[in-house]
Amino acid sequence: MGSEKKDGEMTNKLSTSRGRSGLLALLLLLAGIVPALADAYRLAPGDVIRAQIVGVKESAHSAQVDMAGKIRLPFLGTYRAAGKTLDELIDDISIDTVGRQIGLGDSGVGRVVVLDKSDIFMDIERYRPVTVTGAVASSGHVEFEPGLTVRAAIGIAGGFALPGLTRNGPQLSNLRIRNDELRKTEAWLAADLWRIDALLSGTDGEGPPSGDAALLEAELTEGDLDMMRQRIAGELGEQRREHEDLQARIDLAESQIEFLKIAVAQYETASSNEEARLLDVQSLSERGLSTANALDNARSDALNVSARLLTTQADLAEAERQLQTLRREKLEIDDKFRQARLDEKARIEKSLAEIRAQARAVRGEIVFGAATETADEDVPGHAVVLYRGQEDGEEVSMGALVQPGDVIEVLLDDD
């Protein structure tokens, strides 16, 4: 008797719950949030059904409609669900199970429940997901909820995507932050080009070129610009100092060569004199008018002067080679400096072109995103096609309601 009372209470609660559900559905319908009930939803593979026999807690179970369109429920059996409304499925199961006896064990005490139509509770726990694909930030499945619109599904998928952008679905605020970062980078690269052009022209870079002046003034502080001017002046000063150092080395080499030339001339004279003296001493020695010691000293002096002459001539030749090298470096130093600056300019221009392309794409998505935040119907630059079941795709508006299992494809307009 207690069991019958308990079952009766559960039945009343179920009826009350169904009454509230029906009232909620009616309110949603009147508000235009869900489709007309004339087109009652029909189950399909992928839907998850929650079922329970009132008063039998062991029977609570969630089951998915399988690919064959069937659903398997404990105590009740296997039934075809695909193509039927939830009420039709409940009716089929009720007709088949009314009067069926289910034996249960409760705390070691056996009892029997005789099924009645009102004892079977079923509801849709989870609908088939909606698939969003195409030109969206993150293609994939979107969980269906009654009242889901095309706009909401695309928004859950990260929003629209533009060609060449990453597909991580950034919000407009993040895009604006990224745009600011790109603008700052663009400004610094443009400032570097200003520096390179100033170095190539040999000017002090008093002001940036007119084409980039607005960008630099907007994105960089006066302190940043002063720092760039100081860098230009510093690099030009370093080039001048390199010129001056090289010229000083050339001057020193020329002075050394002049000194060595004088020394060579002096040693040549001394060597000639020592050779003449040696010949005189040899002549005297042959006539017995000079000692052997005097002859040895004359020979030694002649050899010493000759050796010093050879060493000085070698030093002069080396100094002349070094001077030629320094003069060649002086001729090449400007060419090397210019080529290094041109190579650097080419790298900067390439980086600047890439940054500007990224900035244009981000700004385009910002403009596009801002336009689509408030758009209610068509979206510029995109077409939204809805596929339902086996039907051909149909272009729909952003406010169109979707159903479980729908496929939304976002296409970029060709123009």
Report on the architecture of this protein.
With 415 residues, the protein is α+β, with helices and mostly antiparallel strands. The protein has 3 domains: 2-126, wza like fold, CATH 3.30.1950; 130-160 and 379-412, Outer membrane lipoprotein wza fold like, CATH 3.10.560; 175-358, no CATH class. Helices cover 57% and strands 15% of the residues. A 5-stranded mixed β-sheet has the order 9-8-12-10-11, covered by helices on one side. Strands 2-1-7 form a 3-stranded antiparallel β-sheet, with helices on one face. It has a two-stranded antiparallel sheet with strand order 3-4. A hairpin with a 6-residue loop joins β10 (382-387) and β11 (394-395). The radius of gyration is 49 Å and the shape is elongated. The chain starts with a helix and ends with a strand. 18% of the residues are buried.
Quick rundown:
The chain is an alpha+beta fold and 415 residues long. 57% of the residues lie in helices and 15% in strands.
Strand fraction equals: 15-25%
Rg (CA only): 49 Å
Distance between the termini: 76 Å
Shape: elongated
Unreliable parts: 1-38, 164-170
Biggest sheet, open or closed, and with what strands and sense? 5 strands, mixed
Please give the order of strands in the largest beta sheet.
9-8-12-10-11
Question: Level of helix content?
Answer: 55-70%
Order of helices and strands: HEEEEHEEEEEHHHHHEEE
Structural class: alpha+beta
If helices are DSSP runs of H or I spanning 4 or more residues, what is the number of helices?
7
Mean pLDDT: 79
Count of DSSP strands: 12
Quickly count the domains.
Answer: 3
